[in-house]
Amino acid sequence: MQNRAQNCSSSWKLSILMYIRMFINMGVFRVYQGASNHEELHNLLKATVMTRRLKKVVLSQLPAKCRQQVFLDLADN
Prior knowledge:
This protein has helices at 2-23, 38-48, 55-58, and strands at 24-26, 32-35. It is mainly alpha-helical. 0% of the residues are buried. Strand 1 (24-26) and strand 2 form a beta hairpin. The longest helix has 22 residues, at 2-23. Strands 1-2 form a two-stranded antiparallel ribbon. The chain has one domain. The chain starts with a helix and ends in a 19-residue tail after the last helix.
């Protein structure tokens, strides 16, 4: 069981490293400089996890707005 967890952990780390190399621009000294491969990332997200719906389409399905004030006591530290 432990070996399986180690394999899963190492494959997860590899996935993160691949994501960083493909879609994140890292400059000198590992300073984040924006995204790269925008179109490929958009297509990947759209095909696997991202769902977009227009507000005008879903507005009738949303509950009415409910506004309220919430008062908090701030503790002295």
